[in-house]
Fold this protein.
Amino acid sequence: MTIWIILIIIPMLFGLYAQMRVMSTYKKNVQIPSRGRISGREAAAAVMESAGIRDIQIVRVAGQLTDHYDPSKRRLALSEHNYDGTSLAALGVAAHEAGHAIQDKVGYGMMRIRQTLVPATQISAGASQFLIIAGILLGAKGLGGIFLTIGAVALAVICVFQLVTLPVEFDASRRAKAQLVNLGIVGRDEMKGVNDTLDAAALTYVAAFVASLGSLLHILMILTGRRD
């Protein structure tokens, strides 16, 4: 029971805390307008332009914090509030996504590794839960053991993907913060709102990795007969 609490419950609570923190931080800073009144779309375009990137389409997508950069489609997607918004949160998120575009342009190694892992991770994410549930129901020996072993391999792929994601996200935020100041989009005295927003977002990636690692270790302990 103690191991189950450490490997499953604590990471789950950490994940909930990370989600609550990113939402509360975003809601706070999305209400603080930047002095320059530059929109998120304009900020993303300026950051990419400074790196010589002119062929990325910037589009508006529905939802909140649905922002992402898609290197395969050469498209940077910003959620509605961040596309049109001029808040410190909007500028931070928009510049962060532009940071991914810069990583793509310069051939940032960890991003290349992450993109290579995407297909395997998508398959693993779809199969791992079914395999693990089936394995637990059937028991850790025989067919159940086979299911658990394959499920553990799938979880390991997800863990590697999430581990590689950490430096990719941290580096994108670092590039974003530097460029927002260097280009005069945000004043140094305004950076606290940007920093808080991006740091809170980064915590969710840490929480996701911790949760997946905890689940993997738990399954490995079941396979080796250690449950307490």
User: Anything to note?
Assistant: Strands lie at 57-61, 68-70, 75-79. The first helix runs from residue 2 to 29. Residues 135 and 148 are 5 Å apart (CA to CA). Residues 2-223 form one domain.
